[in-house]
Design goal:
There is one protein chain. This protein has 204 residues and is mostly beta strands. The protein is built from no helices and 17 strands. It has a 5-stranded mixed sheet, with no helix packed on it. Strands 2, 3, 5 and 7 form a 4-stranded antiparallel sheet that branches. The mean pLDDT is 94.
Length: 204
């Protein structure tokens, strides 16, 4: 009976592998890499992670403790993105002596947007003389912060509640606004009211 050892030591050093980084990710969410396939080894290799967790086979279960990976298996890593804007979080996976880092960068801080999308009032014709005329509501959209609102030639109501005012105020995204004025005292005469929200205006 004869036994012969292998011609060479087991090869547990994989071919180089690399993760694709992620940018503009939301704040404080779980970010998972795309899979990398481990190749070039002929014996299971040690695998470990820093700054996150990994999954051999990219299954549901992710671990932080060292393990083993075989040739042809895929590995994913994941971590929690930063709670701050424009901040990088990195996770490094090491297989034997080879390693690669997966990074995610949170989106930049969003500047307040106080310029709404264009809005338009439906004009009214053949109205009676010298009576209050109220526009149909318009909905203010496209804001990420409250915007200034002002009126000329009439007054306005936020929410179209029946309470109208002529002084400057503020309006939030999704709120409705109506304007009103008193119609002319003469036939075929026009009265106009202009509403301005965050630099965008329309006339009723």
């Amino acid at each position: 009976f004869t036994s012969t050892t292998a011609a060479a030591p087991p090869d547990t050093t994989p071919e180089p592998f690399a993760f694709t980084d992620r940018a503009d990710v939301p704040l404080a969410v779980t970010v998972t890499s795309t899979p990398v396939t481990i190749s070039g080894i002929d014996s299971p290799a040690a695998v470990s992670v820093t700054g996150g967790a990994y999954s051999v086979g990219c299954a549901v279960t992710y671990v932080t403790t060292p393990g083993m990976v075989s040739n042809g298996e895929s590995v994913c890593v994941r971590h929690t993105s930063s709670a701050a804007n424009a901040t990088v979080v990195s996770t490094t996976l090491t297989v034997d002596t080879a390693s690669a880092t997966f990074s995610s960068t949170t989106l930049d801080a969003v500047m307040p947007d106080t310029t709404p999308e264009p809005f338009a009032f439906a004009d009214r014709n053949d109205v009676a003389l010298n009576v209050p005329v109220i526009s149909a509501p318009v909905t203010i959209a496209g804001l990420t912060a409250v915007a200034p609102v002002s009126v000329t030639g009439g007054d306005y109501s936020i929410g179209c509640t029946g309470s109208f005012m002529a002084t400057a105020g503020t309006v939030a995204n999704g709120q409705t606004i109506c304007v009103r004025h008193t119609s002319a005292a003469a036939y075929s005469a026009q009265i106009s009211t202009a509403l301005t929200v965050g630099g965008i205006s329309d006339t009723f």
